Structures are given as structure tokens and as C-alpha cells.
Here is the input.
Amino acid sequence: MRLSHVLPVAALLGAVALCAMPHAAFAQEPGGLVAQNWSFEGPFGTINRAAAQRGFQVYKEVCSNCHSMQYGYFRDLSGIGLTAPQIKAIAASVSVSGLDESGQPKDRPALASDHFRSPFPNAIAAGAAMGGAVPPDLSSIILARAGGPDYVYAVLTGYTPPPAGVTVASGTYYNRAFPGHQIHMPQPLHNQQVTYADGKPATIDQEAHDVVTFLAYMAQPEREVRERLGIKVVLFLVLMTGITYAVKRRVWADISH
Ligand code: HEC
Here is the structure.
């Protein structure tokens, strides 16, 4: 086979291989984590909207009591399928600090363009309330921890009584997945911790799965748009390679022999 025949095939195979590559941030799996089935993984992955909406409910009713999500905006909720009036109503139910007509500090209802509100005024206050451990910001926790969604899921579902002979320090709880197994976060999820609007049974497993889906979305709200564009670009390049090759053959047809 001549090189000129091999090249387009190689380009096509390369493009396909690129598409099939798993998402780099989620690829590493430290030992012991059980890989869960996430709708959003892989280049063609999409956020399961229903799961993410339930996950937002879990975040709002449970996690947001302790954790900030400082890079989250109410308007980001459009990406999990909430409508503009729904987002406006959710934002309006939260009050944030603003100014009155004379420029004096005065609380006001939040707008879609506002950040999610932090439960504590600052990290020192958070640490003081939590026995010294500051609850980490959840904006990009899925990307910040090795194991990503599988790790966060494992922490949320990893509370067990300590094995015989193990005692945990006061103010900490035994957790299988957390490094060192002693975590300052009390078990946040229980069966029926929330009541889902869509009637889905709220088991610990379901709640953890849903909130992780929501956190994965919030870590990269623009990811699906970006990946869809990437796929279009690759398809375009493959097409252009074919056209260029066909044109080259035409142009050289009379000259090459
Ligand atoms: C009562 C307060 C509280 C609630 C409610 C809470 N957390 Fe936490 N969380 C903490 C604290 C405190 C830490 C720090 C733990 C430590 O470093 O020992 C923490 C740590 C974490 C960590 C980091 C573990 C690590 O590897 O460092 C994750 C992930 C997490 N929380 C997720 C959640 C999610 C998701 C929810 C909601 C389902 C939630 N938390 C609810 C207090 C809370």
C-alpha cells in the first residue's frame, strides 16, 4: 500500500481513538474504589438531568448547610434543565447582602446572576463551628480529589462502625473511603434524608449518586457544550482530510504517470 493511501486511514483511526479516550480527570482510580456507572463520563457522556436536579435538592437541603460552593451561580442551574422562572424563584428564596438606596448594607433576595450563598462568613468561622476541620468548597471537589466522582460517592456511602479494636478520635467519625478513616464530617446522608419531588425512593445510595452527578455538573457547567464542539471539529477535520485527499488525486492524476 502506498503511503498516500495509508495516511487518510491513519488520520481517521487517530480521530476515532481520540474520541474514545476516557476523560483524563476521571481516569485515575486509586485502589479500593468501586467504579460507579456515571452518565457523564466519556467523550459522549451527558449529565443525567433528572439525577442532577435531585442532586441539587440534596445539595441545597443537606450539603449547603456546611459547605460553600463559591463558584456556583444560580444561573448555572439552567444546564440541569431548570427553567428561567424556576431559577429566579430558587434564587429569590435566598437572601444575600446588598445595598439600600442610600448605599447602606441591606439584605436583598438573590438574583439568577448571584453566587450560591456560603453557610459561613469565612473559613475561620467554618472551622470554629466544625471542631477545627473546614468543610472544603464543593465547586470543583469532583476534579480536586483522585478518583473524582467514585471517591466522593465512596465517602458519602462509606460510614460504618469502626472495625473491632479501632477507636476514632473525638469529633471524628469512621469512614472506609476517607484517607486515615477518621473524618470530621458527620454522616450527611441517610435513607429518606430528602423527599424527592419526582417520587424516586431516597436511599443513601440514590442520594449519593444524585448529589455526585450534580457536583460533577457544577465542576464544569460548560463541559457538554465544549465536548459537542470538539466532536464537530474532529468530524470536520476527518471530512476535510477526505476532500483534500480526493482533490489531490484529481490534481495529480495526469501528472503522476
Ligand atoms: C454538618 C456539616 C456537614 C454537612 C451537612 C456536610 N459536610 Fe461534607 N464535610 C464537612 C466537614 C467538617 C468536612 C471536613 C472533614 C475532614 O477534613 O475531616 C467535610 C468534608 C467533605 C468532603 C471532603 C473529603 C475529603 O476528601 O477531604 C466531601 C467530598 C464532602 N464533605 C461532601 C459533602 C456532601 C456532598 C455533602 C452533602 C450530601 C456534605 N459533605 C455535607 C461537614 C459537612
